[in-house]
Amino acid sequence: MHGRDTAGRVHDEPTHAYRSPYQRDRDRIVHSSAFRRLAHKTQVFTGTMGDYHRSRLTHTLEVASIARTVGRTLGLNEDLIEALALAHDIGHPPFGHAGEDILNECLAEHGGFNHNRQALRIFEVLETRYPDFPGLNLSREILAGQQSRSDKLRPVDAGGRLLEVQAVDSADSIAYNAHDADDAVELGMIDVNELDASSIWRLASVNARRRYANLDAHQFRRAAVHELLDLFIGDLIKASRQRLAEVNPSNALLAAFQPHALIASSPELAEQKMELQRLLFERVYRHPIVLDQRARAGAALREMFAQYVADPAPLPRRFLAIAESEGVHRAVGDYLACMTDHAALEEHSRGI
Known about the structure:
Blueprint: H1 21-30, H2 33-37, H3 56-74, H4 78-87, H5 96-106, H6 115-126, H7 140-151, H8 163-186, H9 199-211, H10 217-247, H11 252-256, H12 267-285, H13 288-310, H14 317-326, H15 328-338, H16 341-349
Helix pairs in contact: 1-4, 3-4, 3-8, 3-10, 4-7, 4-8, 5-13, 5-15, 6-7, 8-10, 8-12, 9-10, 13-15, 14-15
Organism: Lacipirellula parvula
Protein name: Deoxyguanosinetriphosphate triphosphohydrolase-like protein
Domain HD: 56-177
């Protein structure tokens, strides 16, 4: 997708003297309040468990790194990829998917809650950094990419899915598979040898030992994670090149409207990724410590939601304005979703 072919922005703006449309999008995302808050939002493990594991922000940066590598190798638009990657998780509430589940439950009769849809609200409504328009006024390509994630439609039904969007989605999957395994071992939730139940981890382990001799346990895990990323990314690039050569789309839109993703892993590796994901789900995401923290965080968020719905007066002025225009439930959902883990726990401890 070339910047010169952009569909523009909802609110027209003159072109910039030395930045492409997608460079401007990237900068607007990076300088937003919502992006900064990702540093203190849960990816999988909360901040109370140490300082090694990923936050929502470090995960986002790792996705951007992987996606840019894939995009550069395949000749895609690296600026657009970077902006899409930095934007992809910006709608997450505190406490990761536990927080999302609770807000979706609380808002069940008021449109529900989904972090991908919430990202669009941030981009179009909640961020107020410019005097000339609400939101960040991002390029339509960024908004469409985020919309396609929230709707989970086929490409033809979602208005097309640009190759750059597909690259970011694949990079996201790669990042959380590899790095959640790394974090779980570091935190002692799973032994590195237990990961051998996954065939792709076994192969990464063999490659690490073949490449390096006399590694201690810490060095071995790091080397194995690097090999795992190499396997994932190498397969993604190879399989995507083959699909692109077979379809040979003449422009970005033709590529976007294919019935199946062109930027995706091979079927063989996709199955191996699913095998690792199932292992992580059983042994890590359902670990008693994780479940206990999810339950505690969820209870706090649920209580705060009920209290603010009953008495919204303490809400900041801009959320009171949303309550008047869209209802108090949506306003409270927006307010709580904006919070970091620490801010939510602190406010809950004060009995708010």
